[in-house]
Specification:
single chain, alpha/beta, Rossmann fold, five-stranded parallel sheet, about 40% helix
Length: about 450
């Protein structure tokens, strides 16, 4: 009996030793793979739609910003290439702008979130580069378009970014892109905003800086043991897939950031109007700084077709089910009415005119990221260039503008300029309001 017990104990010890050796071998294999490939096996699908450039850092002033004077390489799975990104001293993607602005330069600042930042798109195919080239063809003045897109930003943080940093660029035109995730982003970060007595935002520090998150013991173990990190990430992805499908059918804005897009009366959504309120503050600030202001928007992939941006993990990272499609047109109409009924009428262009549900809808977006493809960048640049040259007074619509002439955007814009609304043009603010009330 003693011999049988000893034999059993020996087998148990042998099995445990073999199991430990297998785990150690797997751990070594995982670390060798990460070292050779440069990829983390524990990278969750959340990284697909987040910040692949790893250039975003917390900010005390406007929630988060890009590292200034930094560089990064981003893998674009759609083109099987690496995109090189560089930031300037302002923490913006692109070359260093000249300060003060030369008199012969017409400067346009394009603000937005990761849609405008577009880390998977090279500079040569980017919306800002294409817009600059198209406007340059219309005038002898030098056109400069600056990419001021920051991942995770919304009108609240974009107002603060312009007020505290970008106003020194002396732009002739500020073009703000409203993304349909901005309502959810605003809802998450507004609680940290610091406002004055008139409820105008003064700063919005990142929650990580205000109350640093304590590192949990499990996170320490995940950093130390890569095999554990891989196992938990794999199990977590399966759970998140099921959770995302539940969120897609939910109408609760706390669980589904795009639930309100289904509403037939989105103008009653409090989160939406809180997110667009800083746009008026930004428009007023631009007027006081002798800059013109315009608003544009474009649909997200899941607002166009259920087939857009269906790469592995892309929709899951955004909390959208694989087959989801939010085809409601009313949010676009509500945003147009907001722009035209604003205290300062805001020129508005709707990108769904060119990025619309049709046969080739999928070509407007990347498959492996929820952002514009090169085709989408080109179509949006052509639309916005046409809009600016016709509707926004400036040197871009004056082909004989002398090089040393002060940009025309420093003069007050006429009140009867043509406005764009939902793919149509109406002359004068009064006619726009009449058409809106009739449509209602």
């Amino acid at each position: 009996m003693f011999r049988a017990g000893f034999t059993l104990l020996r087998r148990v010890i042998f099995a445990a030793s073999l199991l430990i050796l297998l785990i150690c071998g797997a751990e070594v294999g995982v670390r060798v793979y990460e070292a050779l490939s440069g990829n983390s096996v524990g990278r969750s699908v959340e990284g697909v739609g987040g910040d692949p450039s790893k250039l975003v850092i917390p900010s005390w002033s406007f929630h988060q910003e890009l590292k200034p004077l930094a560089s990064a390489r981003v893998e674009c799975r759609d083109s099987n290439s690496e995109i090189e990104l560089k930031t300037n001293s302002f923490g913006l993607r692109g070359p260093e702008p000249t300060i003060p602005k030369p008199l012969d330069v017409c400067r346009i600042v394009v603000m937005g979130d990761e849609t405008i930042f577009a880390p998977e798109t090279p500079d040569s195919e980017h919306f800002c580069t294409l817009l600059q080239g198209l406007l340059q063809q219309k005038t002898q003045a030098k056109i400069e378009v600056i990419n001021a897109g920051v991942p995770g930003h919304c009108p609240l943080t974009e107002y603060l970014l312009f007020k505290q940093r970008l106003i020194s660029l002396q732009p002739d035109l500020v073009l703000l892109h409203y993304d349909w995730s901005d309502a959810s982003d605003d809802r998450q970060i507004r609680r940290n905003a610091r406002c004055d007595a008139a409820k105008v935002p003064q700063s919005c520090p990142n929650a990580k800086l205000v109350a640093p998150k304590k590192v949990r013991p499990l996170e320490v173990w995940r950093q130390q043991f890569r095999l554990l990190d891989w196992a938990l990430s794999t199990a977590g992805d399966e759970w998140k897939q099921q959770l995302a499908q539940q969120r897609a059918s939910s109408r609760d804005v706390d669980t589904n950031p795009y639930a309100w897009l289904r509403d037939e009366q989105p103008e009653q959504n409090v989160a939406f109007f809180q997110s667009v309120r800083p746009i008026e503050d930004l428009a007023r600030l631009c007027r006081l700084s002798h800059s013109q202001f315009a608003l544009m928007t474009s649909p997200r992939p899941w607002q166009v077709s259920a087939k857009c941006s269906r790469g592995e993990g892309v929709r899951l990272a955004a909390g959208v089910a694989r087959e989801a499609c939010f085809s409601n047109r009313e949010p676009f109409n509500v945003l147009a009415r907001f722009a035209h009924h604003s205290k300062i009428p805001i020129p508005f262009v709707d990108g769904s005119i060119v990025i619309a549900p049709r046969q080739d809808a999928e070509v407007n977006f990347l498959r492996h990221a929820p952002r514009w493809s090169p085709t989408g960048h080109r179509r949006m640049a052509e639309l916005v260039a046409h809009f600016i040259s016709e509707e926004v007074p400036g040197s871009w619509n004056n082909p004989y503008s002398p090089q040393n002439e002060q940009p025309l955007s420093h003069t007050d814009a006429p009140e009867n300029r043509i406005q764009w609304m939902g793919g149509q043009r109406a002359s004068g603010n009064r006619e726009i309001r009449n058409s809106i009330h009739q449509s209602r």
